[in-house]
Fold:
Amino acid sequence: MAKVMGLTGKVMGLNGNAAVAYAMKQINPDVIAAYPITPQTDCVERFAEYVSEGLVNTQFVTVESEHSAMSACIGAAAAGGRVMTATAANGLALMWEMLYIASSMRLPIVMMVTNRALSGNINIHCDHSDTMGARDAGWIQLFSENAQEAYDNIIQAVKIAEDLEVRLPVMVTQDGFIISHAVEQVKVLDDDLVQEFVGAYKPAYPLLDVTHPVTYGPLDLFDYYFEHKRSQIEAIDNCFPVIRRVGEEFGKISGRKYDLLETYKLEDAEYVVVALGSTCGTAKEAVNLLREKGKKVGLLKIRCFRPFPKEEIIKALVPRRGVAVLDRSVSFGGFGGPVFTEIRSALCDAPARPFIIDFFYGLGGRDIYVEDIEKALLQIEDVVQKGQVDQYIGYLGLRE
Amino acid sequence: MSKLKGWKELTPGGIITEAGNAREYKTGDWRTERPQVNKEKCINCLFCWAYCPDASVIVDADKGVMVGFDYDHCKGCGICASTCPAKAIDMIPER
Ligand code: SF4
Ligand code: SF4
Structure:
């Protein structure tokens, strides 16, 4: 079959979990260590089927908890394997200490997180409290708007993580149930093309290279810990060119190019909504409807939240009059949600900055409607016209 | 200890790329008391050598005698002094 750009492969009906499991099959990593948790279970379950059918060579480690899953991933990655895993919500929380260890050791582990609310009370539906809580753990974080992006991101994540300039773990997220359990048409690439794209894994400092013995994670006290953290800061800050390059290269083989951010009708927009994940699809519709009514509105979608693309965000938002940020997680006691805080901080020194307000929405899987986002955009327009902010933090879809 | 490196000179993730270099980590400066042996009292039973958790008692293996301490690594725990049957080791406060 001729390799025409974007025309190889086929279209499959897959939900987000299945799309990621299918990508994992095509990547065929050395090791996957995972524990099932709703709404990610479906993903590892499908991968287990591939293992039992002999379709992959992966060593599939069924562990007794997520803490063990990430520990096994760290061990396997340090040994020199290409390693992947998947989790959600409380499972991610149980990995907590290991997340920091994976990134500190610069291990290129790729993990899919199906976003789900953290307890309590017990809730299995989508919000971003799990991955936002892990935003300081030293992992690259890529958010997906739909199953196609989850599939595309997971393949790119392998190449990003393993780039010798990066060597950091990558978290690819998809919204629980909204993406993970909704069947979409997903364009999948040919197996060979995926293999060619990710390439053969070249481990750096593998523990199993007994002729070059190395030590991972030694005692690191007041004399060196700080310097090691500084070099980790440098490592993640330097990832932008690689993430962009991989996004462009992926565009060449798939026809779907990726960048740190995606803009929608932003060029002449005066009022902008900022969002992550599946809500961006809803926001595009809200933008379309308001545009029909003559409102100059647009969307800024953040695909890469860690590292935080400050320069690009400043460039995209500074010329606007008002910005409504949508936060699908709470930083209790903080001044707004994590996306709002970061965006305000980035724009703080801009000569003429827009008014910026925040909206909490969608906690525990509460639906967000097109009208909610229209309301947010109209509210920021109102703020700009009044010339003052009466309320920095609002709520969408909440009963009073 | 050798000159401390700056953050740009470190290996990724602080990985140690040479084997057996724990010896270069001079843990002796953690000590608040140093053991001192009185060889006139010492009966060379080598209990101190057997009990020292840091392999910091130096022994002349050919002669089978206790010679002294490796102060670069001795942490001053005092186990040697308390196990010595001849009360030949004193713990002296470090300045
Ligand atoms: S004081 Fe402790 S560390 Fe030092 S030589 Fe005696 S037993 Fe070993
Ligand atoms: S334990 Fe006491 S007597 Fe025995 S070798 Fe050591 S210092 Fe000498």
The longest strand of chain B covers residues 33-37. The radius of gyration of chain B is 17 Å.
